[in-house]
UniProtKB/TrEMBL annotation:
Entry's family note: Belongs to the bacterial ribosomal protein bS1 family.
GO cellular component terms, semicolon-separated: cytosolic small ribosomal subunit
GO molecular function list: mRNA binding; structural constituent of ribosome
Function, as annotated: Binds mRNA; thus facilitating recognition of the initiation point. It is needed to translate mRNA with a short Shine-Dalgarno (SD) purine-rich sequence.
Name under which the protein is recorded: 30S ribosomal protein S1
Transmembrane segment boundaries: none
Length: 559
C-alpha cells in the first residue's frame, strides 16, 4: 500500500516537472550545436530533443555561415517531434522574432537600425535588418536619384524605420532620412564657420540653366547665372564645367533653410564704377549686339556693361519695324550714349543718333520751291505720300494736287507706284514732315495773272460763253463769271444775249479771292464808277445838268 502511494507521488512530481520545463511549440528556445553534417547543424534543445537547421540560416546576407560545434544558439521550436522523432526547429524564425522585438523598440524610440540591402524588387530594394526583411523604396535610397545601387548591396549601414506592422509583417525603411540628417548636421557645422562676404574655394557639382551648385566641403551653395560674371551669360556652361574648382564669395546665408547664395563676379572689379567716366553723354562708341527683343536691342560696350537701344532710337525712318530687321545678334554697331542711370545700372543708347537726321539733310539740300521726283508710296483720303531721298516721305495734300479740280477728283488720276514730280512747299524737321505740291509745278497762274491787278481796277476781258444767268469771261487765261445783275446799271440792258462770244468788254474788279482763285467782275460797277467820276469832274448831282450833258462835256474835254 505504501509502495503504491510512493509511485503515484513520483509520477505526479515527474509530470509536473515535465509540464514546467518542456517548452511550448511556437516559442524560442536555447540549444547547443552538437554536430555539423551534410550542410546542416544538429542542435540539442534539451529534454532529449534534437533538431536540424540548414547552415545557410546561420549566414548573414552575402556572408558565409558562422556556426561551430559547441555554440549556443537560439532557435524557434515549430514542433516538438516530426515523423523521424526529431524536433522541428528554425534559426531564421528565431532571428526574425528576436529582430521584431528589437525593431519595435527601436521604432518606438525613433532610433536607427542596422541592416544590409540584399535584393531588388519592384519599386525599391529588400533590406535584412538582422533577421527581419524590410522594404526600401527607391525614393528613399539617397537624397538624389541613384542609377547604380551595386556598390550599396550587402553593405551594413544604418536605416530609419518609417513604418512597421508586425501582424502583416511589413517594415518600410529609409536610407535617405539618415543621409539628410547627417547632411543637415554637416551643413550646420560648415555654415557655422562661414560668414557673408567670405571668399572660399568650391567644386562645381551640378550645372543647370539658371546656375551651378558648388560644394563648399559638405554643403552646397547656389551660384546663380547672374552672379557668375558682370557680362551677360546665356548659359552657365559657357564659363563653368562640372568638377572645376572655383573661388566664390558668400553673398547670403539663410540660417533657417541652410541655403547659401554664392557669387563669382563680386570678386572682380565692377566695370560700372567707371561707366560715367568712360562713356560720357553724347559720346559715340562701338558695341556688339548681344540680345534682340520686341522693344529694342541690347548692345555690349564692354564685358559687364550693356546698354539698351530702344526701338524708337534705332532708325530715323523705320518706325514700325521689329529690331531684328534692323540689326542682328553679334553685329558690331556704332551707338551714342543718351542716358546713364548708375543706381539701376542702365545705359540708354541710340543707333539713329550716329547718323544725320534725314529731314535735316533734306531741308539743307531741298529748300522750299525745289522740284523733286518720287514714287507714290501710299494714297490716303487726305492726299498722296511720295517717296523721297533718304528713305523719307513727303505728302501732297488734296488741296495741292490741282488748281482747277477738286482734290477728291484730282486724286483719282493717281495710282500707287506712279512716278510724279512735285515742288517742296515746307519742311518741318521737328515734326519730321515734308509738304509737297504738284499744282505748283507750273507756277501759280492765278497769282501771275492778277499780280498787278487791284480791287477797283478796270480790266478788259473776253467773253467765252453766254448763259442764262450771265456771261463767262476770261482774263489772262483765268476764267470768271459775271452775273446777269452785274451786266449793266440799266435793268433793261442786263441781258446776256446782247453779248457775243469773243466780245471784249471793260469791267471793274470787285473782288480778288485767292482761295477760290476767282475774280469778282462787274460791268455795272464800272458804269457806276464812271458816272461818279464824271459827276465829280463836270458837275454835281443838284446842278440840273443831265447825265448826257455831263458825259458830253467829259468827252469834249477829252477831245
Amino acid at each position: 500500500m505504501a509502495n503504491t502511494t510512493s509511485m503515484e507521488e513520483f509520477e505526479a512530481l515527474l509530470n509536473e516537472s515535465l509540464e514546467m520545463d518542456t517548452p511550448d511549440e511556437g516559442s524560442v528556445v536555447k540549444g547547443k550545436v552538437i554536430a555539423i553534417e551534410a550542410g546542416q547543424a544538429i542542435i540539442d534543445v534539451g529534454y532529449k530533443m534534437e533538431g536540424r537547421v540548414e547552415l545557410k540560416e546561420f549566414a548573414e546576407p552575402g556572408e558565409q555561415p558562422n556556426v561551430q560545434v559547441g555554440d549556443e544558439v537560439e532557435v524557434f521550436l515549430r514542433a516538438a517531434e516530426n515523423a523521424r522523432g526529431e524536433a522541428v526547429i528554425s534559426r531564421e524564425m528565431a532571428r526574425r522574432e528576436e529582430a521584431w522585438d528589437r525593431l519595435e523598440k527601436a521604432y518606438a524610440d525613433d532610433q536607427r537600425v542596422e541592416g544590409a540591402i540584399f535584393g531588388r524588387v519592384k519599386g525599391g530594394f529588400t533590406v535584412d535588418l538582422g533577421g527581419a526583411v524590410a522594404f526600401l523604396p527607391g525614393s528613399q535610397v539617397d537624397v538624389r536619384p541613384v542609377r547604380d545601387a551595386g556598390p550599396l548591396m550587402g553593405l551594413k549601414q544604418p536605416f530609419q524605420i518609417l513604418k512597421m506592422d508586425r501582424r502583416r509583417g511589413n517594415i518600410v525603411v529609409s536610407r535617405r532620412a539618415i543621409l539628410e540628417e547627417s547632411r543637415a548636421e554637416q551643413r550646420a557645422e560648415v555654415i557655422g564657420k562661414l560668414q557673408e562676404g567670405d571668399a572660399v574655394d568650391g567644386v562645381v557639382k551640378n550645372i543647370t540653366e539658371y546656375g551651378a551648385f558648388v560644394d563648399l566641403g559638405g554643403v552646397d551653395g547656389l551660384l546663380h547665372v547672374t552672379d557668375m560674371a558682370w557680362r551677360r551669360v546665356n548659359h552657365p556652361s559657357e564659363i563653368l564645367s562640372i568638377g572645376e574648382t572655383v573661388k566664390v564669395q558668400v553673398i547670403k546665408i539663410n540660417k533657417e533653410t541652410h541655403r547659401i547664395s554664392l557669387g563669382m563676379k563680386q570678386l572682380q572689379e565692377d566695370p560700372w564704377d567707371l561707366v560715367g567716366v568712360k562713356y560720357p553723354l553724347g559720346s559715340v562708341h562701338k558695341g556688339r549686339v548681344t540680345n534682340i527683343t520686341d522693344y529694342g536691342a541690347f548692345v555690349e560696350l564692354e564685358a559687364g556693361v550693356e546698354g539698351l537701344v530702344h526701338v524708337s532710337e534705332m532708325s530715323w525712318t523705320k518706325k514700325n519695324v521689329h529690331p531684328g530687321k534692323i540689326v542682328s545678334t553679334s553685329q558690331e554697331v556704332d551707338v551714342m550714349v543718351l542716358e546713364i542711370d548708375g543706381a539701376k545700372r542702365r545705359v540708354s543708347l541710340g543707333l539713329k543718333q550716329t547718323q544725320r537726321n534725314p529731314w535735316e539733310v533734306f531741308s539743307e539740300t531741298h529748300p522750299e520751291g525745289t522740284q523733286v521726283e518720287g514714287e507714290v508710296k501710299n494714297i490716303t483720303e487726305f492726299g498722296l505720300f511720295i517717296g523721297l531721298e533718304g528713305e523719307i516721305d513727303g505728302m501732297v495734300h488734296l488741296s495741292d494736287l490741282s488748281w482747277d479740280e477738286r482734290g477728291e477728283d484730282a486724286i483719282q488720276s493717281y495710282r500707287k507706284g506712279d512716278v510724279v514730280q512735285a515742288v517742296v512747299s515746307e519742311v518741318d524737321v521737328e515734326k519730321e514732315r515734308i509738304s509737297l505740291s504738284i499744282k505748283a509745278l507750273g507756277g501759280d497762274k492765278f497769282a501771275d495773272a492778277v499780280g498787278g491787278v487791284k480791287r477797283g481796277a478796270i480790266i478788259t476781258v473776253e467773253v467765252t460763253a453766254i448763259e442764262d444767268g450771265g456771261i463767262e469771261v476770261e482774263y489772262e487765261g483765268m476764267k470768271s463769271f459775271i452775273r446777269r445783275s452785274d451786266l449793266s446799271r440799266d435793268r433793261a440792258e442786263q441781258r446776256p444775249e446782247r453779248f457775243s462770244v469773243g466780245n471784249k468788254i471793260d469791267v471793274r474788279v470787285t473782288n480778288i479771292d485767292s482761295k477760290t482763285r476767282r475774280l469778282g467782275l462787274s460791268i455795272k460797277a464800272r458804269e457806276i464808277a464812271e458816272e461818279k467820276e464824271a459827276v465829280e469832274q463836270y458837275g454835281s448831282s443838284d446842278s440840273g445838268a443831265s447825265l448826257g450833258d455831263i458825259l458830253g462835256a467829259a468827252l469834249k474835254g477829252d477831245n
